[in-house]
Specification:
With 705 residues, the protein is of the alpha/beta class. It folds into four domains: 96 residues, Nucleic acid-binding proteins (OB fold (Dihydrolipoamide Acetyltransferase, E2P), Beta Barrel), CATH 2.40.50.140; 119 residues, no CATH class; 189 residues, Rossmann fold (3-Layer(aba) Sandwich), CATH 3.40.50; 157 residues, Rossmann fold (3-Layer(aba) Sandwich). It contains 24 helices and 23 strands. Helix 14 links the parallel strand 15 and strand 16. The structure holds adenosine-5'-diphosphate (ADP) and magnesium ion.
Length: 705
C-alpha cells in the first residue's frame, strides 16, 4: 500500500478543501511573523496558521484597576497612576525609571532599550495613566518592568478587561503569542457542521467556529478547563477525526481480498507435541485469528497479553496453518535477542512437522545470508523470524501471506509496510505486552481487531511484591548477594529520571560498580546508549547465566525471557508508570521457582504513590493495573502512554475526555457503515474535519499495519 498521504483511503479528498486554505497557510502569513519570530512561533505551535489557532491559553488575567497598596509580588495587576518623576538613563546600558503613584502608594516603572526619550515624551510628568503588568518586589522596592499596557484614562478600552495568557518562549512573550493566536482565529472560517445535530444538542456543544472563538476568549476560569463545553467540542472533533480514520482503514482493509487460509492438521500435531495445553484465552485467540484468515479478507489483528501469556505460541500455530497452505510467514521483533528467543520457541515444534524456519538478523552476512535469502525466495523455507533485517530491499519471499510483528509500536509504519509489501494483501498480526486501559484502547489501536490473552498459563507462581524505602538498600543488596550465591539471577532497574541522561547513566554505572563490590564480577550493565550489538551480547550473557545480576537503565531492552531470573529490583519505582512496573515484574516469575520483586522508593511517598505501589502488591492483572493507574494519576504523559503508541492530541485528554473516546468510536463506526465514501452532506463536512486535524492518514498509518 502506498504510504503517500491520502492515497491509503481511496475516497479521501486528494486535494485539500479550499475552505481550509487560510488555516493551512504558513505562519509567516500572519502579521508580524517574520524571519525572527517564525521559528519561535513554530516551536510553540507549528508551521501553519491552524497550529496557532489551536494554541490553548492556560490562564486568565483580569485587568481591573486596583490600588497600588494592594499590589502583590508576582501578580499581573492594573493600576490608575500619575507620573511623578522620570529618571533618564546615564548610559545606554541602564534602563529608564519612572516613578508613578496613586493615593495609596508608589511604584517604579522600568524600561530598557533605546526608546527612553520617546517614553518620557509620551508619558510626561503629571500625566495620568492606566498601567497593567507584572508587579515585582525587589531590592529597589516595588516595580513593574515594561508594563503590558500604559494608556491615558480615556483610552482605557484598549486594555482588555479579561485576557487569556498563552504559552510563551524565550524571545516571544505571551502577549505577542496572544496577538498571533487572535489573528489566526480571525482567519478561521465558519466550517460546515460535521457533527450529528442530536449529539450537539445533547452535549450542548457550540458550533466549531464558536468553540474555537470561545477558547481564545475565555470569560471565566471555568472556560479554560478541558471539561467546558467548547473545549469538549474541540476534543470530540479531534477524537472523531481520528476514530473515523481508523474505522475507514479497518473497512478498507476488509474490502481487500486476501488469501483464504484454512485450519490445518499440522497444528493439531504440533499441539499434541507441546508439553502443555492451551489456556482458554489462547484457544479463543487462535479461533478468532483462524476465523479472520478463513474469511478471504485481509486480517489486521492484535494479540494483547502479558509477557509470557503465550502469544508467540499462538502465532506459531497460525504460521503452521499458513505453511500448510504453501504460504510463508514472517515474524519480526524489535531486537536481535527477542528475535532469537522467538526463533528458539517456534523452530523446534515447526520443523518437527516439516515447516522450515530461518532466523534472519543483521548478523547474517555473506554466503550464509545469501543461502537463507535463496531459501525464502524459492519458498523452501516457510517461516522467517528476524529483526529489521527482514524488510531489507534484497529480501524476497516466494509467497508471503502473514506478517507477525512483536511489540509493534516499536516499529515505524513504513517499516511494517515494507515487510507487508513483500507479499500481496499480506495478513497482519501484531503482538503487544503493553496493557492499555480499556477506555483508551480505541485511541491506540482502534483500527485493529483485538484478541486478548488475559489468562496466564497454569503453574506460574505469583511474584511476591513488596515496597521498601531506599534507606534499606543495603539490606536488599545483602539478600541479593545470598540469593545469587544460591544460584539465582536478578534484574536491577535504574530508571532514567533526571533531565540529563548522562547523570542517570552515571548513577546506573555507580550502582553496577557497587553491586560488583558486594556480589562479585558477575554483575553486568545494559543501557540505552549502547550499540544494539553490545546490548544483545550483554543480554545473551545474562540469558546464558554467565551474568547473575543485570543492571539496566532501559525498560524495553529487558523484554526477554530468562526463566531462571527470579528477582526484580526496581529503583525509584514511584517514577514509573504502573503498567511499566507490571511489565517489568513480568520478567520474573516465569519458571516454577518462587520469584520476588522489590520496589525501592525515595521516601516520603505521596498518598497516591503509595496507593499505586499497593495495587501492584494486590493484583497481577495488567489490564486492571493500567486502568487503576489512569484513575489514580488522572492521565497525562506520566502514564508513559506515548511510548505505547498513544497519539499526540491537541485537545483530547485521555483521562478527562475518556467518555468521548468511546462515543467517537461508535460514531465513527456508524458513519463508515452508512456512508463509507463520505459522500453525503455530513460526509463532505467530515472530510473537512479529517483534513483539519490531519487524521486522514496520520494515525491510521501510524498504528495499522
Ligand atoms: P509471550 O509471547 O506472550 O511472551 P510465549 O508464547 O513466548 O509468551 O510463551 C512463554 C512461555 O510459556 C514459553 O516458554 C511457552 O512455551 C510457554 N507457554 C505458552 N503457553 C503455555 C501454556 N498454555 N501452558 C504452559 N506454558 C505455556
Ligand atoms: Mg513474547
Amino acid at each position: 500500500m502506498p504510504a503517500k498521504k491520502g492515497a491509503a483511503v481511496g475516497y479521501a479528498a486528494v486535494m485539500r478543501p479550499e475552505i481550509l486554505f487560510p488555516l493551512f497557510a504558513p505562519i509567516t502569513s500572519l502579521k508580524g511573523v517574520g524571519p525572527r519570530v517564525a521559528p519561535l512561533l513554530q516551536r510553540l505551535a507549528g508551521p501553519i496558521v491552524r497550529d496557532v489557532a489551536f494554541l490553548k491559553p492556560h490562564s486568565l488575567v483580569r485587568r481591573t484597576p486596583a490600588s497600588l497598596s494592594a499590589g502583590l509580588d508576582g501578580q499581573i495587576m492594573t493600576f490608575e497612576v500619575t507620573v511623578d518623576e522620570i529618571q533618564k538613563p546615564r548610559s545606554s546600558a541602564q534602563p529608564l525609571r519612572m516613578r508613578v503613584s496613586d493615593p495609596s502608594g508608589f511604584l517604579t516603572l522600568v524600561f530598557f532599550g533605546r526608546f527612553g526619550d520617546q517614553i518620557a515624551t509620551r508619558h510626561p510628568i503629571g500625566a495620568k495613566r492606566i498601567i497593567s503588568g507584572k508587579v515585582e518586589d525587589d531590592k529597589f522596592g516595588r516595580q513593574m518592568v515594561h508594563p503590558d499596557y500604559m494608556v491615558a484614562p480615556e483610552k482605557r478600552d484598549e486594555i482588555p478587561e479579561l485576557e487569556a495568557i498563552y504559552p510563551a518562549t524565550e524571545g516571544l512573550p505571551a502577549r505577542r503569542v496572544r496577538t498571533f493566536a487572535l489573528e489566526a482565529l480571525e482567519r478561521a472560517p465558519e466550517l460546515p457542521e460535521w457533527q450529528d445535530p442530536a449529539w450537539l444538542k445533547q452535549e450542548r456543544f457550540p458550533a466549531w467556529r464558536e468553540a474555537l472563538a470561545r477558547l481564545h476568549a475565555p470569560q471565566t476560569e471555568a472556560d479554560l478547563a478541558p471539561t467546558s463545553p467548547h473545549y469538549r467540542r474541540l476534543a470530540y472533533d479531534e477524537l472523531l477525526a481520528q476514530q473515523l480514520a481508523m474505522a475507514q482503514r479497518k473497512a478498507e482493509r476488509r474490502r481487500d481480498p486476501a488469501a483464504r487460509i484454512a485450519p490445518s492438521d499440522t497444528v493439531q500435531k504440533i499441539r499434541a507435541d507441546l508439553p502443555f495445553a492451551f489456556t482458554n484465552a489462547q484457544e479463543r485467540a487462535l479461533t478468532e485469528i483462524r476465523a479472520d484468515l478463513a474469511a478471504g479478507e485481509r486480517m489486521s489483528r492484535l494479540i494483547q497479553g502479558d509477557v509470557g501469556s503465550g502469544k508467540t505460541v499462538v502465532a506459531m500455530c497460525v504460521m503452521a496453518d499458513v505453511a500448510a497452505g504453501a504460504g510463508q510467514s514472517a515474524l519480526m521483533a524489535p531486537t536481535e535477542i527477542l528475535a532469537r528467543q522467538h526463533y528458539e520457541t517456534i523452530s523446534g515444534p515447526l520443523s518437527a512437522h516439516g515447516v522450515g524456519v530461518i532466523l534472519l538478523t543483521g548478523r547474517d552476512k555473506g554466503a550464509a545470508r545469501a543461502e537463507k535469502l535463496r531459501a525464502l525466495a524459492s519458498g523452501g523455507v516457510k517461516v522467517a523470524v528476524g529483526t529489521h533485517a527482514l524488510f531489507q530491499d534484497d529480501v524476497a519471499f516466494h509467497q508471503l501471506q502473514l506478517a507477525v510483528v512483536d511489540e509493534q509500536h516499536r516499529f515505524g509504519v513504513a517499516e511494517r509496510q515494507r515487510l507487508q509489501s513483500k507479499g500481496w494483501a499480506t495478513h497482519f498480526l501484531a503482538m503487544s505486552a503493553t496493557p492499555i486501559p480499556r477506555t483508551l484502547e480505541l485511541t491506540v489501536y482502534g483500527d485493529l481487531d483485538v484478541s486478548k490473552i488475559d489468562e496466564k498459563p497454569p503453574g506460574r507462581t505469583p511474584v511476591a511484591t513488596r515496597a521498601a524505602p531506599m534507606t534499606r538498600i543495603t539490606e536488599v543488596e545483602g539478600r541479593l548477594r545470598e540469593a545469587v550465591a544460591g544460584g539465582a539471577q536478578a534484574f536491577w532497574i535504574c530508571p532514567l529520571v533526571s533531565e540529563s541522561e548522562l547523570i542517570d547513566l552515571k548513577a546506573a554505572e555507580t550502582r553496577a560498580e557497587e553491586l560488583k563490590q558486594t556480589i562479585g564480577p558477575s554483575v553486568g550493565l545494559i543501557h540505552g546508549k549502547m550499540a544494539p550489538a553490545a546490548k544483545d551480547t550483554v543480554m545473551a550473557e545474562f540469558a546464558d547465566g554467565r551474568l547473575s545480576v543485570l543492571v539496566a537503565t532501559t525498560v524495553v531492552e529487558v523484554g526477554v525471557n530468562v526463566p531462571n531470573a527470579t528477582i526484580m529490583v526496581i529503583e525509584q519505582a514511584e517514577r514509573f508508570g504502573l503498567a511499566q512496573l507490571h511489565q517489568l515484574r513480568g520478567r520474573v516469575g516465569r519458571g516454577r521457582r518462587e520469584s520476588s520483586c522489590v520496589l525501592l522508593y525515595d521516601p516520603p511517598l505521596s498518598e497516591t504513590a503509595q496507593k499505586r505501589l499497593d495495587i501492584l502488591r494486590r493484583t497481577d492483572d495488567g489490564f486492571l493495573i493500567a486502568e487503576t493507574d489512569l484513575e489514580l494519576r488522572g492521565g497525562g504523559d506520566a502514564l508513559g502512554l506515548k511510548q505505547s503508541g498513544f497519539p499526540d492530541y491537541v485537545f483530547a485528554d485521555p483521562f478527562t475526555h475518556r467518555d468521548l473516546i468511546a462515543a467517537a468510536g461508535d460514531d465513527a463506526r456508524l458513519i463508515v457503515g452508512r456512508d463509507s465514501d463520505l459522500k453525503s452532506e455530513r460526509g463532505k463536512a467530515l472530510q473537512v474535519l479529517q483534513e483539519l486535524f490531519d487524521w486522514k492518514a496520520g494515525l491510521g498509518l501510524r498504528d495499522a499495519g
